[in-house]
# Entry
Amino acid sequence: MEAAIVFVTMAAGYRVHVPHPPKSFSDLGAIVPLIDRNPDRLPPPELANEEPTKLEPDADRQEIIIDPAPPASQFRASWAVWQLLRYLAALLRLKLTGRLDDEKRAVMTRQLFERMSGIWIKVGQLLSLRGDLISKPMARELSTLQYQARGFPTELARQVIEAELGRPVGAVFAWFETAPFAAATIAQVHRATLLRNNRAVVVKVMRPDVDRSFERDLGVLEFMVTWMLRLGIGKRFRMREGLREMRAILTEETNFLYEAVNLKRMRKNLKKHDIYVPRVIETLSHPRMLVMEEVPGVLMSQYLTVRQTDPDRARRWAVLNGIEDKTLARRLCVTVLRQILEDNEFHGDLHPGNIMLLADNRIALIDFGSVGRLAQNTWTLYRLSLQALAMKDYVRAADLMLLMSPSPSAANTRQLRLDMTAALRSWAFESEFPSSSYADRSIAGMSDKISVVMATHNVPLSWGIMRVGRSLSTLDASLQTLVPDANFMTLCRAYYKDYQRRLNTFEGRRAAFRSAVVKLSTFTSDAELLLGSTIRDQALRLNGVLDRLTLVRLTALAFLQRGLLLLIVLLCEAFIFDQFFSNHVNSHHFHFLPDRLVQFGSRALPGIHPIWWCLMIGVAVYLFRLLQAVRKSIARLE
# Structure
């Protein structure tokens, strides 16, 4: 979800500017019972001793502007098409006047996505990861796309909550903060306190019309893609695959039950990483609302901002709370790589607004609306390619990366391998330059070089791997500030050292043994399946050959039977004609037949003794019955 989405905050929320603020809770429809003060809000028991101090005063917090709910537009599709046509016309005008360059085109594209908002922000963010398809200025501009954090009226939030719960808000929450403290494309977030135990929670409420709005915009996007492909525009973008990925992301993010499941699974996984994930309140979570623990931490985005605006205050706060930048960076990198390379379930949007700092260098992750999972084959290839990079085996890394491409055969594979290997060597060498920035030494910098090579050879990347790219590239926003002189491969090697350390423990050896047993079992099953299917296929092929031979034999026998039957009929007719024609050629018995036919019959028939006629007919009948018996026998055996 967008950078503006956060699920937790400090003890006090953001100040909110409301155009016409209500005088009391009763003006909002009695959201909660009137109380004199907020009840004591209890943090999660696991974090009772790890809550950091406040980093900045409440007065310095960002305001969330509340916009009135916009009326449902019946002309959204026409408006979107009109915006696109205006954009194309502007590009054409600048090109004809010679004033269009990559920078101008990138800025105009970013402005187009910002005007269209909603799903288009996510489309732009996804495209920013495709350095193999778009220019560097375009990727840079689109990567800055962020939803302008504006909330919607609390009355609408109350209606959504009560519709999902089937009861009043006051029946569940002892205190419910009227003003949201965070907002984004899909939802806004309120702080609250559970009535049953005074537990501090946050309530994520979906915008009332977000599912219809996104479905409508996605329909517009699919319509545009269909016509672009018919006109032969952008075929190398593999836009249909991108649309499937976009639909999968939006399906997850517009149904909070997906996020509830992600929270539960990731909480279990990341506990082993010593990373905290808030507990979801399953009984209060529904498709359009999500309730979870409030984590009493400081957002990484807030810490990074204060580092730039007031570095002395940030330094004092870090010392007071036991925060050390290099340790934070190492922990972040290790957990992300563990999620990707070991668990194959990873946070899909690790921007600073989804990372929380706790005391003593502990970290909490929030907003699991987007969790990435790679296909098994892709996951194995990616894991091995990153391992090859860490070992500086660039030839093997290039080969494994090519195997992840959906259609590498379209290129000159030998030259492509050479170019990719050279690009990886160049990135690794240049990342050692003292003057290079973290952006040059990051995984995104490596991806840029690889993307240029693949674009040159017209070889696309898979859209499915983009979730990994999104996770690592959004993490770079934190790493480049925490450790600006770091090298991603150095951080990557730190993960492998941590992996080896864990592997040498008793639990690590036991896990490795279980993994080896599972792999061996899987390999045996796959071998049995593949070899067994091959043998069965050959048997079926052989059986098919035998079936065809049998069919040929039966068909030949059927034709022989029919021939013998016809022969028997002819012999019987010949016997009758021979007996009558030879003795009664001029008899009146045949006055109804033409004379020429009677004369031909008398000359054509051999005129043999009746015994021979009977003998020939008997032999023909015997052969006919013999063939019939043979056919039945073959059919019965087969």
Q: What stands out?
A: DSSP finds 21 helices and 14 strands in the chain.
